[in-house]
C-alpha cells in the first residue's frame, strides 16, 4: 500500500495570499491615516502657538491697535505660517476685539487656528 502525501493545492495558496494582501493593505491604510492625523495635529499646535505669540507680543507692548486688518508671516519650528488679525471695536471703548487667524503659508482659505481675545487700552 502506498502512502499518499497531502499538501496545499494552488487554489488554497492563492486564497491565503489574497487574504494576506487584503490584511496588509488595511494595515497600511490605517498607518497612513494615523501619520496624516499626527501631522495635522502638529500643524494645528504650531499654528496655535503662532496666534498666542501674536497676542502675547501685543499685550507685552501694551498695544492698542487701530480697527482694521493686519497680516504677516511667522516661522514656527521650521514651518512658515501666515497670520491675520482682524481688530474691531467693542461696546466698551477701552477695549479692542482681536480675532487672530493662522494659515498654512500658501493656503489662506482654511485657518489652522483661530484665537479671539480682547486688549485693554492701558494707561501710560
From TrEMBL:
Protein name: Type II secretion system protein I
Main function: Component of the type II secretion system required for the energy-dependent secretion of extracellular factors such as proteases and toxins from the periplasm.
Species annotation: Andreprevotia lacus DSM 23236
Keyword set includes Cell inner membrane: yes
PTM info: Cleaved by prepilin peptidase.
Sequence similarity: Belongs to the GSP I family.
Predominant subcellular localization, coarse grouping: membrane
Keyword Cell inner membrane among record annotations: yes
Gene Ontology biological process: protein secretion by the type II secretion system
Cross-referenced InterPro entries: N_methyl_site, Pilin-like, T2SS_GspI_C, T2SS_protein-GspI
Amino acid at each position: 500500500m502506498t502512502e499518499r502525501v497531502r499538501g496545499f493545492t494552488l487554489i488554497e495558496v492563492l486564497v491565503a495570499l489574497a487574504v494576506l494582501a487584503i490584511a496588509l493593505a488595511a494595515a497600511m491604510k490605517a498607518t497612513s491615516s494615523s501619520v496624516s492625523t499626527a501631522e495635522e495635529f502638529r500643524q494645528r499646535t504650531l499654528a496655535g502657538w503662532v496666534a498666542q505669540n501674536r497676542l502675547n507680543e501685543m499685550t507685552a507692548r501694551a498695544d492698542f491697535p487701530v480697527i482694521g486688518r493686519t497680516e504677516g508671516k511667522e516661522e514656527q519650528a521650521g514651518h512658515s505660517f501666515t497670520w491675520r488679525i482682524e481688530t474691531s471695536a467693542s461696546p466698551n471703548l477701552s477695549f479692542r476685539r482681536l480675532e487672530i487667524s493662522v494659515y498654512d503659508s500658501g493656503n489662506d482659505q482654511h485657518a489652522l487656528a483661530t484665537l479671539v481675545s480682547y486688549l485693554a487700552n492701558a494707561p501710560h
